Amino acid sequence: MGRIFLQGVGVDDLNFEQALDFAKCGQVVTVNPEMISYAGTNPEFAKILREAQLVIPDGIGVELGLKILGHNVKRIAGIEFARELLDRCKTAALVGGAPGVVDKIPGSNIICRHDGYFTDAAEIIEELKQKQPELLLVALGSPKQEEFIYSLKQILPNTLMVGVGGSFDVWAGNVKRAPVFMQKLCLEWLWRTAREPKRLKRIFPALPLFLLKVIVERG
C-alpha cells in the first residue's frame, strides 16, 4: 500500500477489495475535497487524518485531484465501503443520524444503536467500551464524526471505526441514492445537489478552488 499526498493529506492507493482487506481495526477516513481543505486550516483535524489507519478517496474531486498529480487512483464510495463492512462483520455499533433512523437499519449483528442527537457522549462511550463491537459506524457529519472516532481509539483498540456521513438515511430508506448509471459516471454529487440545492454552496466555489490548488501544487 502506498500513501499519496494531496494538499498535504495522505490518501491510500488501494482499490475497493484491497481497502476491505486492509481495514481490520482503527480509524478509516473516507476523505473528500472539503475535508482536505479543512485539514489545511485546522492542525488538529490534519493530525486525525495523518494518524488514520486508512484514508480512502470518497469523492470525485479527490479522484480528479490525484489524476492531476499523475496518479490513477479510483474513488471508493464510502457508503458502499461501509455497507460491505457492515454486512461482513460479526458485531456492529451505529451512532448518528436523526432519532429513529438507526432503528430502521436492518442487521442482526447490530448490537448498539444511538442517534446523533446527544449532548453528553459518556453513556454511549461506556456502552461501546463494554460491548467492544468489531465495527463502529458514526454518522455525525464531518469533522465531528472523525473527531468522535479519534477520541475512541484508545478505548476501542480492536474496533474498526468509520465515519459515514449521510449513509444511515439511505440505508434506512429515508433518502434515495442516485440512479446506478449516475453512480457509475461519478455524477452522484449532481443528483444530491439537485435534491438538496443548499449543497451547491459547499461545492462551488470550493471544488474549483480545490482543483486549482492541486494544479498549483503540481507546478
Any chance you could write out the topology, listing elements then pairs?
Blueprint: E1 3-6, E2 9-12, H1 16-22, E3 26-31, H2 33-39, H3 43-51, E4 54-57, H4 60-68, H5 78-88, E5 92-96, E6 110-114, H6 122-131, E7 135-139, H7 144-151, E8 160-163, H8 167-171, H9 180-184, H10 188-195, H11 200-203, H12 206-218
Parallel strand pairs: 3-4, 3-8, 5-6, 5-7, 7-8
Antiparallel strand pairs: 1-2
Helix pairs in contact: 4-12
Quick synopsis:
With 219 residues, the protein is an alpha/beta fold. The chain has helices at 16-22, 33-39, 43-51, 60-68, 78-88, 122-131, 144-151, 167-171, 180-184, 188-195, 200-203, 206-218; strands at residues 3-6, 9-12, 26-31, 54-57, 92-96, 110-114, 135-139, 160-163. The protein has a 6-stranded parallel sheet, with helices on both faces.
Walk me through what this model shows.
This protein has 2 domains: 1-76 and 176-219, no CATH class; 91-175, Rossmann fold (3-Layer(aba) Sandwich). Helix 4 (60-68) runs parallel beside helix 12. The chain contains 12 helices and 8 strands. The relative contact order is 0.16. Helices cover 44% and strands 17% of the residues. The protein has helices at residues 16-22, 33-39, 43-51, 60-68, 78-88, 122-131, 144-151, 167-171, 180-184, 188-195, 200-203, 206-218, and strands at residues 3-6, 9-12, 26-31, 54-57, 92-96, 110-114, 135-139, 160-163. The chain has a 6-stranded parallel beta sheet, with helices on both faces. A two-stranded antiparallel ribbon has the order 1-2. It is an alpha/beta fold and 219 residues long.
